[in-house]
Design brief:
- Among the domains are: 246 residues, Glycoside hydrolase, family 65, N-terminal domain (Beta-galactosidase, Chain A, domain 5, Distorted Sandwich); 210 residues, Glycosyltransferase (Alpha/alpha barrel), CATH 1.50.10.10.
- The protein is built from 20 helices and 32 strands.
- The strands form 8 sheets. Strands 1, 8, 9, 10, 11, 13, 14, 15, 16 and 19 form a 10-stranded antiparallel β-sheet that branches.
- β30 and β31 form a beta hairpin.
- α10 crosses α12.
- It is globular and about 85 Å long.
- The protein starts with a strand and ends with a strand.
- The chain binds beta-D-glucopyranose (BGC).
- Beta-D-glucopyranose binds next to loops.
- InterPro entries: 6-hairpin_glycosidase_sf (IPR008928), 6hp_glycosidase-like_sf (IPR012341), Gal_mutarotase_sf_dom (IPR011013), GH65_N (IPR037018), Glyco_hydro_65_C (IPR005194), Glyco_hydro_65_M (IPR005195), Glyco_hydro_65_N (IPR005196), Malt_Pase/Glycosyl_Hdrlase (IPR017045).
Length: 801
């Protein structure tokens, strides 16, 4: 890896699925895996996948005689196919030649994927192939590939095959393969003119239509060549074979430029019409690449985190920002899509939207607030469905689903295949009602970063009120406890979904959920005092919230139950947690390594993870991740608990010893909560989180889609945690504690209509205000508040303890 590049210098078929995911190119509208253009999907090495942001379809499968419906992120027609052969011989494939040289390079600065291969075929012909590809950041519909093919020791006639392939299915995730997978029905494919083919396909259930048009041209010596072509057209496949004469040591260039339009696009008449009309207007590969590169450079100017002093962390951090911005970008704004947990990079978790937003939005809030609005609007538009879900479940307000897809209904699967045992087992993780706290928290955090009163007034407040109402009706007063409790839920730790021996799913009083419920209610009460009275009255009427409801909110926020372990100060993950058995960690770690999916392992051993004090990921510790100790103390005080910040380290130590880190999010949280008390351990956790996708530490999960929450989480650790960035009491606070490994750090943020440049070293911090139009802003550095005006620059000495 170098500053801006990830380079693979050897061909390794085993690594290919991982590389395909990591070399995915996208623009916030669609993404295509970094698969080789000459290969078809083969379930082992190659899996070309193209995914549309929010492009879902539902299919019904039969499992053990039962019908189950899943909504998947659709694998759309493959626009990549480009291959060659010596006329009449076998088509080129790396598996059939001797590879003499191989370099694959992902250039994140310009969003370009390059592959250089020198190889020898069975007839001793040596050839050099340089392939370049981009998905345009400048034009959300555009992608292109360019080939430069040089016969090094031979001359002769070759055939070049270019195609659009709609015969694809969803088969990227092995454990979903026994489920229905044919999401596309062919509509039409044909040749538009001499050098352009097109294909139209539609999803079987959601009736989402996509048109692709591909123009393939050949250049020789920089000049365009007219070459003989033959087309094969079937309803779901369009192909052209071009015949070209090659001379030894003379490169021929091939360009394939593709436009993709869908029936969800705006400012269009009809997808095929747009694709065919617009493709004629496009210039060549280099010109198109140049405008995409410029778009990327503009994005990087705003979004880069520069740390020239650490050349190991730097490129990985950039890779994380790169994949985040390929998943959601300015091209996403205005589209009805959420931010998927696994990017648009693969089929794991079916492109669904989870609480991972919580880890992703802080980066966007401080740079691309219009993008956060777009993603929050995804939630706002699904408020009616969440209201319906709440009522169906016997509550009021709005209850968002744990996994969300097209229309906001619950998309969690009800059974899942344990690949370790081959058994289908019930999946009750949908009981993670804490997703609702995350949605409200995200609205509030967006408001904190932007001070966007209009959004809060007209959209955000409604979401917060409805979620508060939900929490206030799921919380039930227990006469026995003299407090409110929330029963039958699952916390962030998905290993625990029921009590051992219990028939019914769900746990009582998950501490994280209960505290978050109180936080949301508090927040709703605060917002109701901030907005103008007439708007509050409107919203109370719209959401059917009465004064009695508000009184109940108050009461719940003061009398919520939080379990503790025995007489200690350690918060219990849920009521009854302490009765569980201790888990033999050493034995299992020795056998399975540090990061284990204990739920799968134990199920395959006919045991049950529910029996043990063993967490998949941070649960109680999420509280210390999301809130400062001051905020937490005041929330606990309000509830009538004397929680002391000094006890946080005990809580961390207790759960750290009982967590398997079966989710990549876990290490982010652990790194964060240790940042101030134990820098060394914080850094070790950070490093693991940082490398989780690049090194695929979970052994095979990254190839099914990157972990966007963990990627954004590591970036956020650098931007907020290590700089002590916090928005509190109308002040933007900094209290930097850069780890020893990060000696310098530079980035920009947008805070309440200002652009600020920030430069950190271990003993200095420089804040530079861009010239802007907003009023003065208060910035606090290590406890002292300063007033900044536009155009100002100030330097601060940083005290290190
Ligand atoms: C984690 C969840 C997360 C989901 C999607 C699961 O493995 O347990 O917390 O939301 O993955 O990233």
């Amino acid at each position: 890896m170098s500053e801006w590049k990830i380079t693979y210098d050897a061909w390794d078929p085993e690594q290919q699925p991982l590389r395909e995911a990591l070399c995915t190119l996208g623009n916030g509208h669609f993404a295509t895996r970094g698969a080789f253009e000459e290969e078809n999907a083969d379930e082992q090495v190659h899996y070309p996948g193209t995914y549309l942001a929010g492009g879902y379809n539902r299919l019904v499968s039969t499992v053990s005689g039962e019908k189950i419906e899943n909504e998947d992120l659709v694998n759309w027609p493959n626009w990549l196919p480009l291959s060659f052969r010596v006329a009449g011989e076998e088509w080129f494939s790396l598996s059939k030649v001797q590879v003499l040289e191989f370099i694959q390079e992902l250039d994140m600065k310009q969003g370009l994927l390059t592959r250089t291969i020198r190889f020898q075929d069975t007839a001793q012909r040596e050839t050099l192939l340089v392939s370049r590809r981009f998905v345009s950041m400048a034009n959300p519909h555009l992608a292109a590939q360019a080939w430069e093919l040089t016969p090094l020791n031979w001359s002769g006639e070759i055939e070049i095959r270019t195609a659009l392939d709609g015969r694809v299915i969803n088969s990227g995730v092995a454990r979903y393969r026994s489920l229905e997978s044919r999401h596309l029905e062919p509509i039409k494919a044909d040749q538009l003119d001499e050098d352009t083919i097109y294909l139209v396909a539609q999803t079987t259930q959601s009736k989402l239509r996509m048109a692709q048009a591909a123009r393939t041209t050949v250049y020789y010596d920089g000049k365009r060549q007219e070459v003989p072509r033959q087309s094969i057209v079937e309803p779901d496949y369009a192909e052209q074979v071009l015949r070209v004469s090659c001379s030894q040591k003379q490169a021929i260039a091939v360009e394939k430029v593709v436009l993709i339009y869908t029936s969800r696009d705006f400012a269009i008449s009809e997808p095929l019409l747009e694709a065919c009309e617009k493709i004629e207007r496009l210039g060549g590969f280099d010109q198109l690449l140049a405008s995409s590169r410029r778009a990327w450079l503009r994005v990087w100017k705003r979004c880069d985190l520069e740390m020239a002093c650490n050349q190991e962390v730097q490129p990985v951090l950039r890779l994380h920002v790169f994949h985040l911005l390929q998943t959601v970008s300015a091209n996403t704004v205005g589209r009805d899509v959420g931010v998927p947990a696994r990017g648009w990079h693969g089929e794991a978790y079916r492109g669904h939207i989870f609480w991972d937003e919580l880890f992703i939005f802080p980066f966007l809030n401080l740079r691309l607030p219009d993008l956060t609005i777009a993603l929050l609007m995804y939630r706002y538009r699904r408020l009616p469905e969440a209201r319906y879900a709440a009522v169906e479940a016997g509550y009021r307000g709005a209850m968002y689903p744990w996994q969300s897809g097209s229309n906001g209904r619950e998309e969690s699967q009800i059974i899942h295949l344990n690949p370790k045992s081959g058994r289908w087992v019930p999946d009750n993780t949908f009981l993670q009602r804490h997703i609702n706290a995350a949605v409200a928290y995200n609205v509030w955090q967006y408001y904190q970063a932007t001070h966007d009163r209009e959004f809060l007034t007209f959209y955000g407040a409604e979401v917060i009120f409805e979620i508060a109402q939900f929490w206030s009706t799921i919380a039930i007063f227990s006469q026995e406890k003299g407090r409110y409790e929330i029963r039958n839920v699952v916390g962030p730790d998905e290993y625990h979904t029921e009590y051992p021996g219990s028939e019914a799913p769900g746990l009582n009083n998950n501490a994280y959920t209960n505290v978050m419920a109180v936080w949301v209610i508090q927040c709703a009460l605060k917002v109701s005092k901030m907005l103008d009275t007439s708007r509050v009255a409107e919203l109370m009427d719209k959401c059917s919230i009465s004064t009695e409801d508000l009184e109940r909110w108050q009461h719940i926020s003061q009398r919520m139950y939080v379990p503790f372990i025995g007489e200690s100060n350690v918060i219990a993950q849920f009521e009854g947690y302490e009765q569980l058995d201790e888990f033999p960690w050493e034995e299992y770690k020795a056998k399975y390594g540090e990061a284990m999916r204990l739920d799968r392992i134990l199920e395959s051993e006919n045991d049950n993870v529910n029996k043990y004090k063993a967490s998949k990921q941070a649960d109680v510790l999420m509280l210390f991740y999301l809130f400062s100790s001051e905020e937490l103390t005041s929330t606990f005080e309000r509830m009538g608990y004397g929680f002391k910040p000094e006890t946080i380290p005990d809580n961390i130590a207790y759960y750290e010893a009982r967590t398997s880190h079966g989710s990549t999010l876990s290490k982010i949280v652990h790194s964060w909560v240790l940042a101030r008390s134990d820098r060394k351990r914080s850094w070790t956790n950070f490093e693991i989180a940082l490398m989780s996708d690049v090194e695929d530490i979970q052994g095979g999960t990254t190839s099914e889609g990157i972990h966007l929450g963990a990627m954004a989480g590591t970036v956020d650790l650098v931007q907020r945690c290590y700089t002590g960035l916090e928005i509190r009491d109308k002040v933007l606070w900094f209290n930097p504690v850069l780890p020893d490994e990060i000696e310098c750090l530079n980035f920009q943020i947008r805070y309440r209509s200002h652009w600020l440049s920030l430069n950190f070293t271990h003993d200095k911090m420089v804040i530079t205000f861009d010239k802007g139009w907003s009023k003065q802003v208060k910035i606090g550095v290590q406890g002292q508040v300063y007033t900044f005006k536009t155009g100002e620059k100030r330097e601060f000495d940083i005290k290190r303890d």
